[in-house]
Each structure stands twice: as C-alpha cells, then as structure tokens.
Task: structure prediction
Amino acid sequence: MSRLTRITLLLIVLALVMAMTLGERLWVRGWSRPLEVTIYPIALDSASAAFVSQLRPGNYQEIESYLVSEGRRWKKSFPAPRLKVAQPLRELPPHMQPRSALEAIQYSLRLRWYGFRHTPFWASLGQVRMFVLYHEPTFNQSLPHSLGLQKGLLGVVHVFASDSQQAQNNIVIAHELLHTLGAIDKYDASGQPLNPQGYADLHAYPLHPQQQAEIMAGRIPVTEHRAEMPHSLADTVIGYATAAEIGW
Ligand SMILES: [Zn+2]
Result:
C-alpha cells in the first residue's frame, strides 16, 4: 500500500468517526426518539462480583423515572428515555487521569476503542453507554473520578457495591449521564454550587438554605460557603442551564 493510499484511508476513517460522532450527538439532543441508555456493570474485586451479578433494571429505575419527570417539566412532548442493564463486563475500561488536552483526546479514543470491543456496534449507535465500576465498600475510602464524555456518548462511573449506597450511586450515574448529553459542571473549585446556575430554587427567600441540589452542581447549598450531599435523586433537580445544555 502506498503512503498516499494509507493517508487517504486514515483520513476517510477519521472523517467517518467525526461524522458518526456529530450525527449521534444531534440525534440524542433532538429528543425526537426515546433516549436509550445501557448500563454495563463491572466488578472490580471478588467481593463486588456477587453484588454485581444480582443487579437488575430495578436498581436503576429511579434514574429513568427522574429523567422522565424532569424532562416533562422542561419539554412538553418528550418520549420517555429507556434504561437497560447489560450483562456484567469482565475487562476494565482504560484508566487514566488526563492532565492535558492531548491526554484527554488520547483517553477519549482509548475509551471509544474499549466500547467498540466490548459492546455491540450497531445496537449501540445513538445510545449512551455507561460503564459502572463497582468497588468493595471500605471505611473512608475515596473513589476515582467518574466521567461522562459527550463524544462517543460514553461514561465511566465509580460506585460502591452496596445496597445502602444505591441512592448515592444513582445520583453519580445520572450526573455523568447528563455530561454525555452535553451538560457541564456547576460548582466552583471548592465544590460550592455556582450562583445562579448551580441552584435548584433561585426564587427561594431567603436563598439559603436551599432544599434541593441542582444535579450538575451536585450539592445542596445550605449557606453561601457550605453545601451538603443530597440523599437521593429526589433531592435534586435539573436546573434551567443544564436543561438548555442537553437540548430540553
Ligand atoms: Zn461532573
């Protein structure tokens, strides 16, 4: 194969990937068809494997109902999203904490390659794929950062394998799922929700304490400088800025 042919082929592949990425993004943001989300549970250790093997759609039902009820607040005609749970995957997605724009691109490509190898290609087109990694719950342990990529509609979420953590896990999954649809974070460097876009109720008087969290701000502002974790998705809302970012 000549050099020119190789470069031409590579350019065609790149153009196809870019067209596919753009097409998928327009497709999901159009909201004319039901948003389809597949959860791929992955156990990180033997203790979590037993927990993961008994996961059912019911464990994530709350996320589906949340999207329906929040969607109906912002968008009148709105086909209900569908959430499915796939068989657990054995191989782990690539792990990397990107420190530069170039590393972020590399990571995104590696994650897309992982998705291509471990999920059905045609059935996944235009669908969000969330890889949910279950860790054994241990005291005082912090989890690696979760992420949701708009390019490729992929998310990697780290959660604890415990029934008592289910409500918290669903908050993290919903947050990263909204990232894949184009939503951006709404908190500052110290984790405090941004005013006004990170507040659930801007018309509350007094403004603090707020009763709920904006989902992309992640916490409930109880004072101007202090915020608390919500207990479940019921304590969160999709605010006006997030709604606009995801095309509602
Ligand atoms: Zn985020």
User: Anything to note?
Assistant: The longest strand covers residues 36-43. The mean pLDDT is 93. Helices lie at 3-30, 46-53, 61-74, 101-118, 121-124, 166-180, 240-245. Residues 175, 179, 185 surround zinc ion (CB under 6 Å).
